[in-house]
Structure formats: C-alpha cells, structure tokens
Design brief:
The complex is a heterodimer of chains A (292) and B (204). By secondary structure, chain A is of the alpha+beta class. Chain A has one domain. Chain A has a 6-stranded antiparallel beta sheet. The longest helix of chain A has 16 residues. Chain A is globular, with a radius of gyration of 20 Å. The N and C termini of chain A lie far apart (55 Å). In chain B, strand 4 and strand 5 form a beta hairpin. Chain B is mainly beta. The N and C termini of chain B lie close together (11 Å). In chain B, the strands form 2 sheets. A 6-stranded antiparallel beta sheet of chain B has the order 1-11-3-9-7-6. The chains are: A alpha+beta (292), B mainly beta (204).
C-alpha cells in the first residue's frame, strides 16, 4: 500500500516534511536566525529569509526597522517596491527619487521617495554601489522573447507577474505596480542616453542596508535583469535580514545630507505628527547615525 | 489624411482623448519649451498603460526620439513616434506634484498647481485614480544625465511651432497635463498653450 493511501497515512506523510531545511526559505521565528549581521542583537530580528532566484516575497516593516540585503553569490537581481503600509496608494516613485536628489544612481545617503514627497526608506550602507533606477523588471513578453517562456509557473518567471501575485495578497492589483528600483545589477547611462548593464555576474558578498522611515510594505522579486545578455535565465539567492530600530532623527546623517532630503524627512515627520494613531514616540529619542 | 480632432489646450490645463489604432496625434509646442506631461492607457483595459522602464529597456536608451516605440507595462507597443522636429523627449523626469515641489523648492510652493493634480482630475473622469499614475512621458522636456549621474531638468531644446507626432498601435486613451510648473526651466518659467491634432488615414 502507498504511503498516502489513507487519511492517517497521508497525515503522517505530510507531517514528516515539516522539519525539512533548505538553503532558500524563511526562518521562523526570525529571531532564531543563525546568520545575523555583526553587531545586531538576534532578539531584534524580525525578518530572516533567503530568497531563491526567480522568487518573490513581501513583509510589513515598522518605521525605524533596518533591512539588509546580501547578494551572497554575486548574481542576485533584487527588484524592490515599497508601499506605505497605512495608506497603500502612497508608494515609491523612482522618477521623483532620482529627480529630487539630482542623481541617477542611488547609493548610501540617498532616500527612496514616495509620490507624496516623503522619505520612505534611507540607504544607510551599500557595498555594491551598482543598481538600476531605469529599466524596471521583466514581463511575460520580454521573457517569452528571450527565454521562450516567462510564466511564473515555469523556469523563467517574469518580474511583473511576480509583483502582481505578491501585491494581490495585500489587496493590491496591477495598478499598484509602479516602476521599481533594482539592486545589485547596475546600469550606466551614456552621453547619448544609451543604457549599459554592468558585466554579469557581479561581485559575491556585497550588501545594501536600508532603514524604514515610515511603516512600509517591502516587496522583493529576485528575477533575471531585463537586459541580462545571457541566454540562460540566471539569478542567485538574496539573503534578507530585518531588525527593529528607530527612524532617522534630527541629527541623522541621511536627513542632513541635502536640503531636499531634509524636507522629505520633515514631510514624513509631519505625517506621523498629525496622525496621532501612528506612534511617533521613537523620533525624539532617535540615535545619531546608521548601524546597518 | 482626415483631421478628426483639433484642439488648443490652454496653459496649465489637463486634456484627454482617445486615439484609435492607426490614427496619429500631433502635439504642437505653440510658443516653445512647453513641457507636456503624458500618460497612455489601453482603451480595452486601462490597467495596461505606458511604461517608461519597459520603453527604455526595449530600446536600450533613456531618450525618446523618432522611431521610439512607446511600450506598455505588459510589454506591448502602444504608440510609435513617427515624427518630431525636436531632437529628443524625456521619460525619466516624472510629473511635478505639489508634494515633490515642497522638496525641490520649499513649502512655499505647496499651493501651486501641478501636473499630478491635472492627472488625478482627468483620470477621475475615466474611472481611474491616483494609483493609476505610474510613469509618464514629458514631451519637449530636456533632462540630461551627466557622467557622474547628475540629472536634472535644464533649459529646453524646443522652440515655437515645433511638434511631435505619434501613431497609435492600439486604441489608446491619451491623458495630458499641460505642465503648470513655474519653478524650473521645463516651461521656460512661463506655461503656455499647446495644440492637439488627431488625424486618420484616408479611407480606402
């Protein structure tokens, strides 16, 4: 008789799988994660997950939380969307992020700006320095053309459909997929406007550290870059670690980095100051500097 | 060729019109250096719309020029730039908003009119809302990227009477904000009217 011929046998069969450990999976509770960035108290960890190439994941992070993304093998391609967790119509605006900060290549000291003029997240550390604010992510058509197939049930899942599924679980739709930022795959804009993707793969072991300046929904899709020249769909895992903390205070280095960013922090402060149901006790005691 | 629509859009105002597959829209910069912020939606499904990232990635270039195919969020051609007397147009600079104006110029600009106000209003007339503003085109606007990544809106390269012409590859709802910005050179610090002419090929 088969292992799953009866309900009791099928139950035992299913339960025997529960303790399986693989390289790419979430760790629960997050504070039990064994790989934690230096200096981080393991008890403060709120998200510990290694996301496989081709995958998607999402988490609500509180204002002040730190998020670290590690490109373990040097070939991750993290497409990132950020929504305000309390009013999801507000979201990352890539055009405003580059325009307001007068800089096409976001790195340490930059903020991710919302379309309502607020600082959503700060980039507090960046040992990669190679990112892409222009090309967005793949869709079903681009992957079908390049790989012969782009369906999410296949081997070359496309970024847009991955985002659509992840956001649907938050009650959001395709209308909520605005242009994303891509981390760990850098592009350069040439003098005639041409877009050049860095050589792939990149350097193993780089990371990006971010700090949530508001309550955010972070959605991450790890799919091959839309301009990746390789005929094989190639993308390696990203390790995600988040821990609780405080937002950038009045003497924070990112906040003080430019007048435009300073006003973006003021606008975020104003949101939490006026809406008393959103706890803002953290701000007054925020420490200087970032530790991610 | 038959003119099916011809309208002056006054300075600072929104505008929208359907351009059917095969028809062409000519946008004429009547007085010069007037940014025309533009969204495109597929009539058959307005959730599918113009995508700056998909358009730039498809052509490997940030500038919109004659021959550029304006791509949708789902990877489909929406319109093609079939002619332009301005060398290039912008799609990285986004649309001005009251909120981003507070960052760029200070909170004294909070009560000034802005493109996002126009977009939201015009989209509300087509059963859409703020979430439907994704990426946009800025016709006649000049946004260079320097070697060090410096990027910004600088003096325009358009002039009175210059134009751009777009052929619809599907039935497309074109939504425009005739940009009211007065704090940077995108409109030469003086918003002015533009003209919209939609033409259809001769019936055969």
């Amino acid at each position: 008789m088969s292992e799953t011929a009866t309900t009791h046998a099928a139950r035992d069969h299913a339960r025997a799988m529960g303790s399986t450990v693989v390289d790419t999976m979430p760790t629960l509770p997050a504070r039990s994660a064994t790989v934690v960035p230096a200096g981080v108290d393991g008890d403060t960890v709120v998200w510990a997950e290694t996301l496989a190439g081709g995958g998607a994941t999402s988490k609500v992070l509180s204002r002040g939380a730190r998020l670290r993304l590690d490109d373990i093998e040097g070939d991750a391609c993290v497409a990132l969307l950020v929504h305000n967790a309390d009013q999801t119509a507000e979201r990352l605006n890539i055009a405003d992020t580059v325009k307001v900060q007068w800089q096409a290549y976001p790195s340490t000291g930059a903020v991710l700006l919302s379309d309502l003029g607020r600082a959503m997240m700060s980039i507090t550390s960046d040992s990669s320095g190679r990112h892409d604010a222009f090309c967005g992510t793949s869709n079903r058509v681009t992957n079908a053309v390049k790989y012969g197939d782009g369906e999410v049930d296949g081997e070359q899942p496309n970024g847009r459909d991955r985002f659509a599924v992840a956001l649907s679980k938050r009650g959001l739709t395709r209308r909520d997929i605005a242009p994303n930022l891509t981390l760990f795959k850098g592009v350069t804009v040439g003098s005639d406007g041409e877009i050049v993707l860095d050589a792939v793969p990149g350097t193993p072991g780089t990371h990006v550290g971010l700090r949530a300046e508001m309550n955010v929904i972070v959605t991450i899709v790890n799919v091959a870059h839309v301009l990746d020249p390789r005929p094989e769909y190639t993308v390696t895992p990203v390790r995600i670690t988040a821990w609780s903390g405080l937002p950038g205070g009045v003497d924070d280095a990112v906040r003080l980095g430019s007048p435009e960013v300073g006003r973006a922090f003021l606008n975020t402060d104003d949101l939490y100051g006026a809406a008393s149901h959103l706890d803002d006790t953290a701000l007054a005691t925020s420490p200087n500097g970032a530790t991610s | 060729m038959t003119v099916v629509h011809d309208e002056i859009v006054r300075a600072r105002a929104p505008w929208s019109h359907v351009v059917k597959a095969g028809e062409s829209l000519r946008i004429i910069d009547l007085e010069g250096n007037q940014a025309v912020d533009c969204l495109l939606h597929l009539v058959a499904d307005t959730a599918e719309r113009y995508s700056a990232p998909d358009t730039m990635a498809a052509q490997g270039n940030i500038y919109l020029r004659v021959g550029t195919v304006l791509m949708s969020t789902e990877g489909n051609p929406m319109m093609t730039i079939t002619g332009s007397t301005v060398e290039r147009h912008d799609t990285i600079g986004g649309a001005c908003s009251k909120e981003s104006n507070t960052l760029r110029y200070g909170h004294h600009t909070w009560h000034q009119h802005a493109c996002v106000e126009n977009f939201v209003l015009e989209q509300s007339r087509h059963a859409m809302g703020k979430r439907d503003i994704q990426s946009n085109i800025n016709w006649f606007m000049n946004v260079p990227v320097e070697a060090d990544g410096s990027l910004g809106i600088v003096d325009g390269i358009s002039a009175p009477g210059l134009w751009v012409e777009l052929r619809a590859e599907a039935d497309v709802l074109v939504i425009v904000s005739n940009c009211p910005q007065i704090n940077n050179p995108c409109n030469g610090f003086n918003p002015t009217a533009v003209r919209m002419v939609i033409t259809a090929p001769e019936a055969r």
